[in-house]
Specification:
By secondary structure, the chain is an alpha/beta fold. Helix content is 29%, strand content 16%. The protein has a single domain, classed as Alpha-Beta Barrel (TIM Barrel), CATH 3.20.20. Strands 7-8-9-6-5-4-3-2-1-10-11-12 form a 12-stranded mixed beta sheet. A hairpin with a 5-residue loop joins strand 8 and strand 9. Helix 1 runs parallel beside helix 2 and helix 1 crosses helix 9. The structure holds S-adenosylmethionine (SAM) and iron/sulfur cluster (2 copies). One iron/sulfur cluster binds next to helix 10. S-adenosylmethionine (SAM) binds next to strand 3, strand 5 and helix 12.
């Protein structure tokens, strides 16, 4: 057995645990024996949408204190960290936000990350900037793309994004991504009971047979601004039942251990859907994800209340060894399993907003 890093103690100055040097390798595990495999990087806390479940207008209005440019990690800092994460076993990077395509020059970041060995590079977007960006992203080396789309009827879609973006803009974005050569695009729909659940079947009908995969996500209590309550969650089980009543579905095997979405295949061979049941069927036991926020804080869970500051280390001149040890120590002491222990009380607690921590 390879030796594991010493259990760290908390450093009050920068919220980073002290640690013995952690040698790079794939044996790094957290307190529940979970490996580190995925890193989500939020590259902006800003967005051109105000989705009611993510950045509600009432909170994210004109006076919202978005981060200033110098507070954001720059592309060199992100790329350096990504290399060190990959040495710790990360295999997949997801670029997200906020709306990642709003960050100027994002294609240059993608190009730099694409030079790192053995990493799958993906990006999640609301899609409206894809008509002008898709080709540049593909040329830069982006492997896969996920587009969020919460309804196909105009009234519901505008109600969900709350800034009057028409649904045609997202559909044009998906077409642009197809033209640029992205295959099997994942289409994320957050289902809010009583608000857009009628659109479940619209999306299934629209994307069946297209080669793309709609993934229905249970509305989660991320952050504190969306006023989440359990009554607004439609369990994935009901999503599968509704689609199956019109287009019979059969369960499909996971593509790899720890896959977030459960796969369901259309019995007539017209493709598949996915459901992400983070509220009703927690999957913390296999969670291999870490998140790097826009300003360089590391979060070990989507529902974390505190991050670990890597920017301070980067800008304080830490060498790779120090950064590697800090990251290893954070993962090694990780104990999160929020979705397994969610209660009405935890849901009401103050948590970091998704647009900042990275969805
Ligand atoms: N702006 C991009 C987008 O919307 O695709 C990327 C960032 S967004 C935070 C990433 C994903 O998180 C989106 O698919 C979005 O629908 C999802 N999301 C945001 N808030 C959510 C919530 N409260 N519950 C479930 N999913 C949520
Ligand atoms: Fe913006 Fe994405 Fe959040 Fe919607 S879900 S407000 S598009 S960051
Ligand atoms: Fe992972 Fe936290 Fe989500 Fe559980 S609640 S699956 S630990 S991000």
């Amino acid at each position: 057995m390879p030796s594991r890093p010493t259990i760290p103690i908390i450093d009050q100055r920068n919220q980073l645990p002290h640690a013995e040097p952690v040698s790079p390798g794939r044996d790094l595990t957290d307190r529940h024996g979970r490996a580190l495999r995925d890193l989500r990087i939020s590259i902006t806390d800003r967005c051109n949408f105000r989705c009611i479940y993510c950045m509600p207008k009432g909170v994210f209005g004109k006076d919202y204190p978005f981060l200033k440019r110098k507070e954001l990690l720059n592309f060199e800092e992100i790329t350096r960290l990504a290399r060190i994460f990959s040495e710790h076993g990360v295999r997949k990077l997801r670029i997200t936000g906020g709306e990642p395509l709003l960050r100027r020059g994002v294609e240059h970041l993608i190009a730099a990350l694409a030079k790192l060995d053995g990493l799958e590079l993906t990006l999640t977007t609301n899609g409206v900037l894809l008509p002008r960006m898709a080709e540049r992203l593909r040329d830069a080396g982006l492997n896969r793309i996920t587009v969020s789309l919460d309804a196909l009827d105009e009234a519901t879609f505008r109600r969900m994004n709350d800034v009057d973006f028409p649904v045609a803009d997202v559909l044009s974005g998906i077409e642009a991504a197809e033209r640029a050569g992205f295959g099997q695009i994942k289409v994320n729909m957050v289902v809010k009971r009583g608000v857009n659940d009628h659109a479940i079947l619209d999306l299934a009908r629209h994307f069946r047979g297209s080669g793309h995969i709609v993934r229905y996500i249970e509305y989660m209590d991320v952050g504190s601004s969306n006023g989440w309550c359990m009554d607004e969650v439609l369990p994935s089980r009901a999503v599968v039942e509704r689609i199956s009543a019109e287009f019979p579905l059969e369960a499909a095997e996971a593509n790899y251990p720890g896959e977030v979405a459960q796969r369901w295949r259309y019995a007539d061979g017209q493709g598949e859907i996915g459901v992400i049941s983070s509220v009703t069927q927690a999957f913390c036991a296999t969670c291999t994800r870490l998140r790097l926020s826009t300003e360089g804080k590391l979060y070990t869970c989507l529902f974390a209340q505190q991050g670990h500051d890597l920017r301070g280390l980067l800008r304080g001149g830490a060498d790779d060894e120090r950064l590697r040890a800090a990251i290893g120590a954070v993962w090694h002491q990780r104990d999160d399993r929020y979705s397994e222990i969610r209660t009405a009380q935890t849901a009401a607690a103050r948590k970091i907003e998704m647009s900042y921590i990275g969805g």
